[in-house]
Design a protein that fits this description.
This protein is of the alpha+beta class. Helices cover 34% and strands 27% of the residues. It contains 6 helices and 7 strands; from the N terminus they run H-H-H-E-H-H-E-H-E-E-E-E-E. The longest helix has 9 residues. It is globular, with a radius of gyration of 14 Å.
Length: 135
């Protein structure tokens, strides 16, 4: 990909996370995740949103507190590469809730496998996951 960019710039450039990026922008978090950090983002790929009716996604986008809770459940402070995740059994998300980390050969977050790991950013790391983490 060339030069390393921030979490938000990287997520936009990859193109696999449009709903997640739109949610972050709606909440004004794009600047936070563009400049602060380091953070580790467990980013749901766009396919995770496909089974959800558009009306349900719209409702979530209208309930900013709920949306913030969901987004913050996908983010932890600090930079955790896959090799680091193999050494822990849980992490605390930004919303204060616990993410369970398991490793059976594949690292899983609350049972969801990482599909694209260790996407380097200037202010953290992105791990792409195939489903949405629900607090």
């Amino acid at each position: 990909m060339g030069e390393t960019k921030s979490i938000v710039q990287t997520a936009i450039e990859i193109g696999d996370f449009p709903t997640l990026v739109n949610a972050a922008k709606k909440l004004g978090l794009d600047e936070k995740f563009d400049n602060n950090g380091p953070y580790t983002i467990f980013a749901p790929l766009e396919k995770a949103f496909e089974p959800i009716p558009e009306s349900v996604i719209d409702e979530a986008f209208d309930d900013l507190d709920y949306l913030m809770d969901i987004i913050n459940y996908h983010v932890v402070e600090g930079k955790y590469l896959t090799s680091d995740l193999k050494e822990v059994d849980s992490l605390t998300a930004l919303n204060g809730k616990i993410l369970k980390i398991t490793n059976d050969g594949d690292v899983r977050i609350n049972g969801i496998p990482i599909e694209k790991e260790d996407i380097e950013c200037t202010n953290g790391i992105i791990h792409a996951i195939g489903d949405i983490l629900i607090p």
